[in-house]
Design goal:
There is one protein chain. With 328 residues, the chain is an alpha/beta fold. The protein has 2 domains: 5-125 and 197-327, Rossmann fold (3-Layer(aba) Sandwich); 133-194, Histone, subunit A (Orthogonal Bundle), CATH 1.10.20.140. Helix content is 51%, strand content 10%. It has a 6-stranded parallel beta sheet with strand order 3-2-4-1-5-6, with helices on both faces. β2 (42-47), α2 and β3 form a beta-alpha-beta unit. α11 (235-243) packs across α13. The chain is globular and about 55 Å long.
Length: 328
């Protein structure tokens, strides 16, 4: 099925078009994005907090070198694993890429599963206080003594809206939520809501899609199979190379990425191989659960189901045809 290049022209409201393609991990987002690139005048922008890092390839399910040569993605391999990459930096770089792609007469197609990054584009970024090193040290010391679930419970008391978005072990965002509340006396979610504005819809006519499973057990099977294939392809060896650099540690966002943290702990002698595998699969399932929770609340979203009404797996071409129909 071919679709004409006129999709890249400005819409009746005078705005250029942009496409968001979201979904839980292992749902087939990247394959669909590449299939759309064969049929539409699009350029791809990655929306993934792990793919920004060089050297995080197998465990992040990064497209292969051959795929990237054929289907270039913006915002892949732009950071060393020793760096911190933020939602604010993503928003700035993604908007610049979108504007450049649109100016060249193409459609920006943003694909990935880091929902916080998508929201930074959709809603804008709140102006939040800078990090406080002493306060963070205090919070982390408490987490070491009591565990992150205890701090998540505390966050639930002061910012229940934010806490509801987070897994009890999502250390980075729990820490930030508590830090912002202690610095300002105002919940982070409230600041975000009050300062909303500057969203991408002010500049673009936006089509938003999500690949969604109807039966989560099928997604769990895909997650387990993909994790096993990553291991067979050399995932442990990939993490060993990072581990042996000597300048990286477990508190860095790159090493905290799902899968990488579990293999890192295995290499550090804190668990056996089978325990690492089970923990990696479980962490990936938890990630998928969080992504699905975000997506169930997402506004103006077209759902592309991966299964038919009888529970059978839909062919990729069928899902592609449905996406193209929405875009026509």
């Amino acid at each position: 099925m071919e679709v004409g290049g006129d999709l890249s022209e400005s819409t009746p409201g005078g705005k250029p078009r942009a496409i968001f393609l979201m979904g839980p991990t292992a749902s087939g987002k990247t394959d669909l994005a590449m299939a759309l690139a064969d049929r539409l005048p699009v350029e791809l922008i990655s929306v993934d907090s792990a793919l920004v890092y060089r050297g995080l390839d197998l465990g992040s399910a990064k497209p292969s070198a051959q795929e990237l040569a054929r289907y270039p993605h913006r915002l892949i391999d732009i950071c060393d694993p020793s760096e911190f990459y933020s939602a604010g930096r993503f928003r700035k770089e993604a908007l610049a890429a979108m504007d450049e792609i649109s100016a060249n007469g193409k459609i920006p197609l943003l694909v990935g599963g880091t929902m916080l990054y998508f929201r930074s584009l959709l809603e804008g970024m709140a102006k939040l206080p800078a990090a406080d090193a002493q306060l963070r040290a205090d919070i982390e010391a408490r987490a070491e003594r009591e565990g992150w679930p205890a701090l998540h419970a505390e966050l639930s008391q002061v910012d229940p809206e934010l806490a509801a978005e987070l897994h009890p072990n999502h250390s980075v965002r729990i820490e930030r939520g508590l830090e912002v509340y202690r610095l300002t006396g105002v919940p982070l979610s409230q600041l975000r809501r009050e300062q909303a504005g500057g969203g991408v819809q002010e500049r673009y006519q936006l089509n938003q899609f999500a690949i969604m499973p109807q039966d989560r057990s099928l997604l769990h099977q895909r997650i387990e199979l993909r994790f096993q294939r990553m291991l067979e392809a050399g995932f442990v060896q990939e993490v060993r190379g990072l581990y042996e650099r000597g300048d990286l540690h477990e508190d860095l966002p790159a090493i905290r990425a799902v899968g990488y943290r579990q293999v890192w702990q295995y290499l550090d002698g804190r668990c056996h191989y089978d325990e690492m595998v089970a923990a990696g699969i479980a962490a990936t399932r938890q990630l998928a659960k969080r992504q699905l929770t975000w997506l169930r609340r997402w506004p103006e979203l077209e759902i592309l189901h991966t299964q038919d009404s009888a529970g059978g797996v839909r062919e990729n071409d069928e899902i592609l045809a449905e996406a193209l129909k929405f875009l026509a």
